[in-house]
Amino acid sequence: MASSNYKLQSSISSFIFTLCLLLLQFQAGNSELQLNYYSQSCPKAEEIIKQEVTNLYNKHGNTAVSWIRNLFHDCIVQGCDASLLLEAVDGVESEKASDRSFGMRNFKYVNTIKEALEKECPLTVSCADVVTLSARDGIVMLGGPRIEMKTGRRDSKESHAIEVDESIPNHNDSISLVLSRFQSIGIDVEGTVALLGAHSVGRVHCVNLVHRLYPTVDPTLDPDYAEYLKGRCPTPIPDPKEVQYSRFDHETPMILDNMYYKNVLNHKGLLIIDQQLSSDPETLPLVEKMASDNGYFYEQFSRAAILMSENNPLTGDQGEIRKDCRYANAS
């Protein structure tokens, strides 16, 4: 009897030990993301980021658009780990060098935010959380909704440049491919249509537009709008180094709102993927609903932005907390 009790107690102890290990492994994943993660280690962190984002917006309004794009480009490639920000070192290519990153800018100001954090709390706040929280605060600066986002991410030690082209949809890709790519990271059709609403702010370089204008105008474009775009992009072979562009929305160009969907319905979507939203039977009803209800757009955009921001983060003892967002600490 004593032997049986001993074996039972031993089995129970072994089970509890295994369960504890599983719990620790689970906690090393997404479960460590939480609201106000830095409340003890760096209480002023979120306020510092908000203040820096505000200061930068007042000096360079387009930084707020950059923060939103950074979130998408970082999180969709292997997860939210600030790998996007790494410079090329020792022959390792930077994600920023990819064609998919063409036109992205203001990376230097990420370090402005990071430097302010380092003065307050050295090696505490990750660059991955700077990417997330700057996007959150940038959305507000652009008139969008305040979105509560969790923190606790850690930074990748390596670039994922080799995976960028496969991970980030091209503006010429079909709507079905784009929907599939977002679905692979847990964002449904409704969320994808909402995230594309970020195209209500920012601009597109003529390099990515001229194929819809020359040698003949894309028949899905509104003719008057096409003439306007030709004025912005007067040559079929624009210089990629020149500042030649058109804003996604020239009516409310710096406000994150549902004007994007109204433009799409009026055949004024800049990119092919924008215009396809109104021709696909699965996305058209959502475009119509978001065009008529800005509150609904904000609701779905907020939900999808949270899902994006929590895609496969590094947490626990994974990765590191970079001192300089451009380089892994070992560099």
UniProtKB/TrEMBL annotation:
This is Peroxidase. GO terms for biological process: hydrogen peroxide catabolic process; response to oxidative stress; rhythmic process. Ca(2+) 2 binds at D249, T252, D257. Disulfide bonds join C42-C121, C75-C80, C127-C325, C206-C233. Heme b binds at H199. SUPFAM superfamilies: Heme-dependent peroxidases. It catalyses: 2 a phenolic donor + H2O2 = 2 a phenolic radical donor + 2 H2O. One of its GO terms (cellular component) is extracellular region. Substrate binds at P169. Residues 32-329 form the Plant heme peroxidase family profile domain. It is found in: Secreted. Keywords: Biological rhythms, Calcium, Disulfide bond, Glycoprotein, Heme, Hydrogen peroxide, Iron, Metal-binding, Oxidoreductase, Peroxidase, Secreted, Signal. Pfam families: peroxidase. The record marks R69 as: Transition state stabilizer.
